[in-house]
UniProtKB/TrEMBL annotation:
It comes from Saccharibacillus brassicae. This is Response regulator transcription factor. CDD domains: REC_OmpR, trans_reg_C. Keywords: DNA-binding, Phosphoprotein, Transcription, Transcription regulation, Two-component regulatory system. One of its GO terms (molecular function) is phosphorelay response regulator activity. Transmembrane segments: none annotated.
Amino acid sequence: MAGEKKVKILLADDEPTILQFLDLGLTGEGYEVRLAANGTEALREAEQFRPHIVILDIMMPEMNGFDVCRRLKEHGGNVAIIMLSAKDAVEDRVTGLTLGADDYLVKPFSFEELLARIQARLRNQFPNLLGGVEIGPFRIDERRGEMLYRSEALSLSPTEYGLLKFLVLNHGIVLSKTKILDSVWGYQFGGEENIVEVYIRSLREKLGDKEHRLIRTLRGAGYRMDLP
C-alpha cells in the first residue's frame, strides 16, 4: 500500500465471519486493523486506537451503529465512517448520512467495492497518508504541498493549491461558491464570494483551460471539475 504511515481501520460488526473475512483481507492490503464485536466495544477501541476509518455495522448489540456514529462524530476528530447494513431502506441511508456517516454499503457487498470506498475516503480526508494521489491528469503530493498537471508541477499560491485540490478531489460534483468558501477559505471568512471567481480565473490560466472544459461554470449553481 502506498504511503509511509499505515492507515488504521476499525471494524465493528457482530458477525464473526464478516470480521474474520475483512480483517484478513484488509490486513493483507497493508492496513492496520482492530476489531469490535458490539457498539460499546467499538467506542472503546476507537478511543484507544484512533482509527482513520471506521467500518460500522448498524445492527449490533449493546449499542447500534447509528448511536456509535453519532458519538464518534460528536467527539470530533477527522474520522471517516463507512456504514454497513443488511437493509437497503432509503431511510436507513438517510439516517446514517445525517448522523455524519461518510459512506454507506449494503450487505452483501464485494471486497473490491469496499476497498474502492476506503480509497475514496482516504483521497478526500487523508490524502497525506497516501503520499501521492493520482486523479486523472493530476497528482497531489500532500507532503510537499505540490500539484502536478500532466506530469508538470504547477506554480500555485497556498490558496490556489487548496482550491485546486478541493476541485480535483470532488471532481464531477457541482460546488457552490458558498461550499468552496467554507471548505477552502474557512467558515470565518468575511470577504466577498467574488473572490472565488478571481481564483478560478487564475487556475484556468495556469491550467491552459481557456475554453473552460476542465473547470466548468454552471450559472446559478457554481463550478464543476470535469476530468478527461
